[in-house]
Write a structure and sequence with these properties.
single chain, 3 strands, Sodium/glucose cotransporter, transmembrane, mainly alpha, AA_transpt_TM, 70% helix, L-amino acid transmembrane transporter activity, membrane
């Protein structure tokens, strides 16, 4: 009986109601409402495009901070912690697909929390989701300013490069549907991986990293390190940011043509991401030791840095574009959901959509200019906003869908999953509080250090 119900549920969800009106196909979707050929098609994303989008939400800024996180923890503890985060985040991502199949009306993590905790929970997670996506966009803009400085050899004031990056992202993020942005994601992912592997190969064949002191030098990498609490929790927060795709996955699965392929897309994504992270992080840290740069693209000397950043520019633009687009669409849906203007090419539709994108990019620009330390910003986003979007909600979603089965299905598997879900809630809360403290301490220390660019500074940040 349960199997039959599940099959019916999947069929209903993967094939929204379709009818033909005046010669045009009209689809009635649980999230977007009536979708017709006269407006944007928000349900046109294939499983391969889904995989690429999911990879691009993770392989971007996060991978550039992994070698420096290994430096804080040591190589072996770093790899172990990375794998643990990968497993927990993969389960969190899997729960997105399961919960979406069970509750077709859910679009974002805030909708899921609204089902579990009511309107107050929805608003709290909605604010957190918006801030997370905007901070991710801001991190991308900051990364773009570093890249533009590196490529141009500091050809202009850094504040100018931040503004230029924000303007370009504003234009790209205005694209309305994820199936079109997935085309950009292919290009961005290829460019990002190419630039990272160029640096990885370069540090392996060079005598020393760019930041190493003159004279005879041997890599001072550590198999095991003894970091302070602040350094250790900040490094783990960088891993969390590198895998914090869960808030992106809900909107992505909502735009899939057939969401039953979501698990396949997630498996491909997490496998490629984890292998890439471990390979890049291990090789770069092994050859650079404590002189690894953050972002890692600056570790192999001036020439390689300029080449790598030049190639990575499309990838960095796409990274910031996806975050900005999703933050804008979340706000757009909150305004327009249930309205005919949501899926129609009307003046109200376009004015609201462009206003949302513009508002998000302005806030992201302010954040990128106000917190100009890449590694510390990544740690802050991962700890303060990434954990509460990825750990606690996943545990709560499983309990919400399965707690009612405690009387008739209290098996060992059920008990284990209850314990694991509670563990996700508790460990997520600890990482959020501890990681935020570590990130704030790191930001304060970096701003006080000599040579660190300040807010709205013209200094070279590459």
């Amino acid at each position: 009986m349960n199997e039959k119900n599940n099959k019916e549920e999947c069929t209903l969800f993967s094939s929204p109601t379709e009818e033909v009106q005046h010669g045009a196909t009209v689809t009635d979707d649980a999230v977007f409402g009536v979708i017709s050929e006269d407006g944007p098609n928000y349900r046109n994303l294939g499983w391969m495009g889904t995989s690429i989008l999911m990879m691009k939400t993770q392989i971007g800024l996060g991978v550039l901070s992994i070698p420096s996180a290994f430096d804080a923890l040591g190589l072996v503890p770093g790899v172990i912690c990375l794998i643990i985060i990968a497993v927990t985040m993969s389960w969190s991502g899997y729960m997105v697909g399961v919960f979406k199949l069970n509750h077709r009306e859910v679009y974002g993590i805030d909708d899921a929390t609204g089902l579990i905790f009511g309107p107050i929970g929805r608003e709290i997670l909605g604010i957190g989701l918006s801030l997370f996506l905007i901070f991710c966009g801001a991190s991308g803009i900051l990364g773009l300013s570093i890249a533009l400085n590196a490529v141009s050899n500091h050809g202009a004031c850094t504040a100018v490069f931040v503004a230029v990056a924000a303007i370009v992202v504003l234009g790209l993020a205005s694209i309305r549907t994820l199936d079109r942005i997935s085309v950009l994601a292919w290009v961005g992912l290829a460019c990002m991986l190419t630039s990272i592997f160029i640096v990885t190969i370069a540090v392996g064949i060079q005598d020393r990293p760019d930041a190493a002191p003159p004279g005879p030098w041997v890599s001072d990498y550590k198999i095991v390190n003894s970091p302070s609490f602040t350094d250790g929790i900040s490094a783990i927060s960088q891993f969390i940011f590198a895998y914090a795709g869960t808030p992106f996955f809900f909107p992505i699965v909502s735009e899939m043509r057939d969401p039953r392929h979501y698990a396949k897309s997630l498996t491909v994504c997490q496998t490629v991401v984890t292998v890439t992270y471990i390979t890049i992080g291990t090789v770069v840290y092994y050859f650079c030791g404590s002189y690894v740069s953050s972002p890692a693209l600056g570790s192999a000397g001036t020439l390689i840095k300029r080449i790598a950043y030049g190639i990575s520019l499309p990838g960095l633009f796409v990274t910031s574009t996806i975050s900005t687009h999703m933050a804008s669409k979340y706000i757009f849906l909150r305004f327009m959901r249930g309205s005919k203007h949501l899926t129609a090419n009307t003046l109200a539709h376009w004015a609201t959509w462009l206003a949302c994108v513009f508002a998000v990019i302005v806030v992201a620009y302010i954040i990128a200019s106000g917190i100009p330390i890449f590694g510390s910003l990544i740690s802050l986003v991962g700890a303060l906003l990434g954990t509460v979007q990825c750990f606690q909600p996943a545990g709560c979603m499983w309990l919400y869908d399965n707690w009612s089965k405690r009387k008739e299905q209290r098996s060992l598997q059920w008990i284990f999953m209850v314990c694991y879900s509670i563990f996700m809630i508790v460990i997520g809360t600890f990482l959020m509080v501890g990681g935020t403290y570590g990130a704030v301490v790191g930001i304060i220390a970096s701003l006080k250090a000599d040579g660190t660019s300040g807010t709205w500074s013209c200094a070279d940040n590459s």
